[in-house]
Amino acid sequence: MARVQEKGTEADVKKPSATTPGLHEEFDVTVIGAGPGGYICAVRAAQLGLKVLCVDKRKEAGGTCLNVGCIPSKALLHATERLVEARDLFPRMGIQCGEVKADLAAMMANKDRIVSETVKGVAFLFKKYQVTFRTGHASIKSPDCIVLDGEEVRTKRIVIATGSAPATLGGIEIDEKQIVTSTGALKLPHVPRHLIIVGAGVIGLELGSVWRRLGADVTIVEFADHIAPGFDRDMSKQLARSLQKLGINFRLNTKVTQVDKRADGLTVRVSPSDATGAEGEEALSCDTLLVATGRRPVTEGLGLEALDIKRDQRGHIIIDENFNTSCPGIYAIGDVVPGPMLAHKAEEEGYALANHLAGHPHHIRRDLIPGVIYTHPEVAMVGATEESLKAQNATYRVGTYPFMANGRARANCDTEGSVKILTCERTDTLLGIHIIGPSAGELIAEPALAMNFGASAEDIALSCHAHPTLSEAVKEAALAAFDRPLNL
Ligand code: FAD
Ligand code: NAI
């Protein structure tokens, strides 16, 4: 409840001034980057009465997330999931719709329309709250001055929200046609015959699913001995089984050593990763290679060195609990600072920083940022994994419940997966929730909220859940954690 009082009330939300300032005026805050971190920070600061400038290299606001990340990838994931459903599930449900086939050009056009309408939404918010938006490359001259494409702009404070870009692999040249990052993989003009993906992280698994569903042979080469790093190992094992059923081929414990372009495709040389102690090399053939080995913070060209803004070993800007960098008056949020590289984490930081700049208290539960993989089945988590609890020598209980025993999942013919709840053995307090199954990304909101309020498994189990809903699986897993499930 404390959080409600901490947040600004409606009365704090000031009406924007009648005129939008020009660049010759001094701004209260200048935000560099209009991704989910930057644009939310700009809008919230303007709501709280500050005069805000937001600048981005891209013509359209929205950053990676709206332009080449979350939104286009989810548009393709949704469309291709419906394709598989119509082809494989509709006949089982008694729906005949003749031959089901993909129209890739139309699917891409639909994705592009969704992106362009969504980025217009950010432009609308900027206009509504009188945030001045400019396109151009920004660098920082001093804590009270940025340089935007050669023009100096005065400002009282600066927020760096410059996000991240794909990490590249040494010796492999990205052309965004044959050898692509996620950006190229979101707009391939043809379905590849064989797509090799380096990295079984979130991007590899999501975009691998898209192209496999569209008919490509997909091989994912992963350094580690498991997929989906950072997720609970039980979930990662179940997801690997499901994606193998879809036809994705995993090469775990394997690294890519070299890629050669041939006239008719690519030769990808792989060998066992060093941890295995094994040796040997193998040549794989493909027409498209997606490099999905993580993302790096974007700080080049900002002028951080001259300002002595400190970064960690991975290049992230170091900040304190109030988002201060090592240079007073300059703040940083989102993918460019440490923590999970997620849009909702960037948004939370943008909102909290704007409140801080306007003199309001702020609060982020960094341990309760949910993670979701939008494959089928979906995977979602919040809180601790079982592996991390073991590493801490914590005493915990586990409650699990399969969607196979959930009425709604059965009615929907979508029963793959389960819910796993980890609780403190002594107090029953929720420590971590892991869901693999239908709508896992939506279902995780309830336990995430419960954990924010310090709830126990019993609290969830004794809350009435509507029947028949998928959310009953969460309730049953909670019952399993503190007592026993009913419908199992
Ligand atoms: P960004 O969104 O990267 O925005 C930074 C902006 O700063 C960019 O627009 C850039 O042009 C601008 N910029 C950089 N330097 C300068 C400069 N010097 N001057 C002016 N402008 C500059 N996250 C999720 O939570 N859920 C998802 O489903 C999800 N899916 C994703 C799918 C893909 C394919 C990818 C690549 C990412 C996905 N992400 C997802 C991650 C998410 O996109 C990022 O975490 C999020 O966009 C980070 O927000 P940000 O505001 O920190 O930075
Ligand atoms: P990632 O960090 O999730 O996964 C990278 C994978 O590549 C790891 O499993 C790693 O072991 C492997 N790897 C690294 N180097 C390798 C090598 N040389 N050979 C073989 N494997 C190698 O990174 P990814 O998938 O690129 O995603 C980047 C970021 O984007 C993530 O931080 C993620 O949070 C965000 N994102 C989030 C999404 C979501 O929330 N649904 C969707 C897509 C991206």
TrEMBL record:
Signal peptide: none annotated. Residues 1-15 have a biased composition (Basic and acidic residues). It holds the Pfam family Pyr_redox_2. Its cofactor is FAD. It catalyses: N(6)-[(R)-dihydrolipoyl]-L-lysyl-[protein] + NAD(+) = N(6)-[(R)-lipoyl]-L-lysyl-[protein] + NADH + H(+). Residues 369-478 form the Pyridine nucleotide-disulphide oxidoreductase dimerisation domain. One of its GO terms (molecular function) is dihydrolipoyl dehydrogenase (NADH) activity. It is an enzyme of class 1 (oxidoreductase). The keyword Flavoprotein applies. InterPro entries: Class-I_Pyr_Nuc-Dis_Oxidored, FAD/NAD-bd_sf, FAD/NAD-binding_dom, FAD/NAD-linked_Rdtase_dimer_sf, Lipoamide_DH, Pyr_nuc-diS_OxRdtase, Pyr_nucl-diS_OxRdtase_dimer, Pyr_OxRdtase_I_AS. Keywords: Disulfide bond, FAD, Flavoprotein, NAD, Oxidoreductase, Redox-active center. Residues 1-20 are annotated as: Disordered. It comes from the Bacteria. The keyword Lipoprotein does not apply. Binds 1 FAD per subunit. NCBIfam families: lipoamide_DH. Belongs to the class-I pyridine nucleotide-disulfide oxidoreductase family. The active site is a redox-active disulfide bond. PANTHER family: DIHYDROLIPOYL DEHYDROGENASE, MITOCHONDRIAL, DISULFIDE OXIDOREDUCTASE. This is Dihydrolipoyl dehydrogenase. The lineage of its organism: Bacteria, Pseudomonadati, Pseudomonadota, Alphaproteobacteria, Acetobacterales.
